[in-house]
Amino acid sequence: LSYAIQDLWPTLDVYNVLMRIEYGSVALAPLFAVLLVNELVGGLPRVPMQSLIGAQVVVALCAALLPPVVVTGPVLNAGQLLFLPGGALVVIELARAWLQRRSEESAIVLGGYVLLVLCGVSDILSSLQFIEVPLLTSWGLALVILSQSFVLARRNELARGRSEDLLEALTDQSAELERKNADLARIDALKD
User: Fold this and answer.
1) How far apart are CA 111 and CA 101, in angstroms?
2) By C-alpha distance, which of 36, 26, 34, 8 is closest to 64?
3) Are the C-beta atoms of residues 114 and 91 closer than 8 Å to each other?
4) HEC letters along the chain
């Protein structure tokens, strides 16, 4: 990607642009995860959620506006620190939703997010040089996307099935109303 960008815009500092995109997306990913989980399960604790969203927006703005030296140091550390409570909030609320609903969908999304958080923690520990493992967050993100895709596909299937059932019921009701109208028209004709 960087070679393609450099071929198109030779004067552009590709590293600077890609670094900002990468760190900005890393800062915004937990924000979107929290919003999505709030939409799926509803009722995330309001104050922690708003605090986390505000902090993630600040980190993303820092990644977009500050010099690379600052972004790869303190901003990255702040993003990593915010990942932990954000991941915990998401996993706890998904676990709560699963305990309440006991649905297959909740279990699948919970599993995807648990794996994502574990991969993120592994990457944080690796970047702090506590452990030496390859970066895994991209794999965790792929698992979350697969789990969400499964849930969305299943909901789409259920919605289509429900709409077909409603269409069939509406067709039956329309036919019944047409028969009743025909009966009323015959009675009206006999009355005259």
Assistant:
1) 15
2) 26
3) yes
4) CHHHHHHHCCCCCHHHHHHHHHHHHHHHHHHHHHHHHHHHHCCCCHHHHHHHHHHHHHHHHHHHHCCHHHHHHHHHHHHHHHHHHHHHHHHHHHHHHHHHHCCHHHHHHHHHHHHHHHHHHHHHHHHCCCCCCCCCHHHHHHHHHHHHHHHHHHHHHHHHHHHHHHHHHHHHHHHHHHHHHHHHHHHHHHHC
CB 91 within 8 A of CB 117: yes
> pLDDT tens-digit profile of 95-123?
887 888 787 888 888 888 898 888 888 88
pTM: 0.64
d(CA 54, CA 78): 13
Q: Which amino acid is at 173?
A: Q
Burial class (CB in 10 A: 0-12, 13-18, 19+), 102: exposed
- The answer to whether the CB of 40 falls within 8 A of the CB of 109 is yes
Report long-range pairs for 157-165 (Cβ below 8 Å, ≥24 apart).
none
Provide the token pair at 87: 């991941």
